Amino acid sequence: MLVLTGALQGLQKFLALGINGIVGAILRLAFAIGLVALGLGASGALAAPIFAGLVTFAIALVPLVPLLRRPPSTHRSDHGLTLKDVLAYAGLVLAGTTCFAALTNMDVMIVKHYFAPAEAGQYAAASVLAKIILFFPGAIMAVLYPKAVERYARRQDSSGIARQAAAAVAGLCGGLAVVYFLIPSLLIRLLFGQGYETAIPLVGLFGAAMALFALVSLQLTYYLSIHKTRYIPLMVGSTLLQVTALVLFHNSLLEVIIILLVNAGTLLVVGEVICQGLTGAARRPSTTEYKGLFSP
Known about the structure:
Elements: H1 2-10, H2 14-61, H3 65-68, H4 83-114, H5 117-130, H6 138-153, H7 159-182, H8 184-192, H9 200-225, H10 231-248, H11 253-275, H12 287-290
Helix pairs in contact: 1-2, 4-9, 4-10, 5-9, 6-7, 6-9, 7-9, 9-11, 10-11
């Protein structure tokens, strides 16, 4: 599925990609309900994604059939990519995504280690609610990446698209963070019910931190698309600093969230000062840089 959805994204078949995602979610739910209703219990619920995956695999294959049916003689072989190029780029992606996962998840494990179970449970509730914000920019990232890659391959500036994406993410996630500040108690009661009142003061600030991390995710996506490799060491350094700060300073749950907020904001500013991909025109790759990365 990852290969097929990656192909759909790379070919910018966004309608097919969106339909596949929606149908997949509906099928997972439908299969889960149906199999559980047949008496299969937890096994049925676990089997549901497998059956849904088989169906969505077939659906994703349909728009790619014309490409797969093309005679081998029509396929271009002058792309210049080598296995070394692919592995090097995959390593950058792995490092960046691993660091982002650590930045947005390591705090829960550290809180669980240093705080009492009751406090850790309250923090976990606020964390689940706040991290919903991270899922909202996913569609924007899915469009930004292939479009920025295409422009990079054509040696064209892509900073305008990146700025539009950043504005959309900032508006969407910032708006959600404002809602978290305004009605935290209502949101906590709707999702978790009674018994999580201690989490209410954490929700607004936690939402603001996740809104900043959503912008960090956009930065990472964009700089990977235009091969701004200097951003990856910044991600690694930011991750190490955040973990160190959380281990050393955790007098309260609010202090933990402030560390996340400050670190996300610092990474955004430092990353932009060094890479300057959003605030200025992205530098077009030279012919030398370009060779072995993409076909003209």
